[in-house]
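Worked example

This section walks through a single chain of length 114. The input is the sequence exactly as stored; nothing has been trimmed or padded.
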Amino acid sequence: MRESQLVSALITGLYPVVKMYRTNAGTFRSMDGSHIVHGLPKGFPDLFGVISKDKVADGRPMPVFLEAKVYPNKASPEQIAFLQEYRKAGCIAGVVYSVADAWKLIDPILKKVK
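Given that input, the structure is written out below as tokens.
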């Protein structure tokens, strides 16, 4: 599986609970040959979204940041730092290698239906 396939699987697999948005960034050369970087800051994860308050056990919206990786790839130091910072701020943030990994991060905060 390629990382782009995992990202698509995550967007589809998490859709019932959280709408994930793919982040894109890149570089290009301007007409005068200058190197231009556009998009999000270095380390920003592949996907982000928000779980609505009606689905969260404590009734607060929950931001979600996911870095998708395919084995044996690992997150960069910048990605790890970003995810740690947002976990400390109370968000769901992590490196995931499958849709099941993502559910392990999300499920504990969800409102349980009786």
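What to look for: The longest strand covers residues 62-68.
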